[in-house]
Amino acid sequence: MYSLILTDEVIDRIDRIAKLHGKSRSGLIDQLLAQYVSMTTPEQRIKNLYELMLGQMQRFSDEFRFLTDQGDLTAVSALKYKYNPTIRYSVILYREVGQYLGELRATLRTQNAALLGEYTSFLRLWNEIERGVTDSDVQAQLKGGTYRRLLKKQGGEPEEISKAITDHITTFNDCFKLYLSDGGSEKAVGEITKKYIEYCERGVLL
Fold it and tell me: Coil, helix or strand for 136?
């Protein structure tokens, strides 16, 4: 926390601009000073990544419906199953980046016990494939229909990182639908494994 001595006229203008953009006074001053000294604030980094991801996901607008008022990247995909259930993907990026950049949440929006059971079986398979192909300890859990997977911090440009995240979402979505359509058969498992390996070969892993 720092104290600044500013003129009343400057504060009045800062407050008007901050209100217009839905920011706090401190947040706007921090952003303006960061721009002046050519630095990127955590908020700017997160905003840039969300914008990149949304732009990249637009290629799949026939497959996803986007909710842009959530403050994060949220995409919804319909499933070919009884009563038209959907699966919602949300990417939550952390302000303070340590070992993890953020997390992906995939929430199955249904009360159908049979579908929830198939989702659980698919996630068990998905985790086995991830751990087997990447030889890494993927941190993920399923609770109440929501699959939560931590995204490891990686090097690379923002474009590469955002593409890795969006590729992961689209690959996961394709594989889950394939699993549902083929009842988790041996053939489906082989196809899902192949799709995951192709995803790994395209760029930065998470």
Answer: coil
Q: How far is CA 182 from CA 107, 114, 122, 190, in A?
A: 21, 15, 12, 12
Distance CA 86, CA 8 (A): 52
Total residues found in the chain within this entry: 206
Domains and CATH numbers, the chain: 1-39 (1.10.1220), 42-202 (3.30.1460)
Answer whether 57's CB lies under 8 Å from 66's CB. Answer: yes
The C-alpha atoms of residue 55 and residue 159 are separated, in whole angstroms, by 10
Integer CA distances (angstroms), 122 to 11, 43, 119, 179, in order: 55, 35, 5, 7
Report how far residue 40's alpha carbon sits from residue 18's, in angstroms, rounded to the nearest whole number.
18
pLDDT, tens digit, for every residue of 84-94? Answer: 899 999 999 99
DSSP string computed for 138-203:
--EEEETTEEEEEEE---S-HHHHHHHHHHHHHHHHHHHHHHHHHTT-HHHHHHHHHHHHHHHHHS
Rg of the chain taking only CA atoms, in angstroms: 20
Write down the pTM of the prediction: 0.81
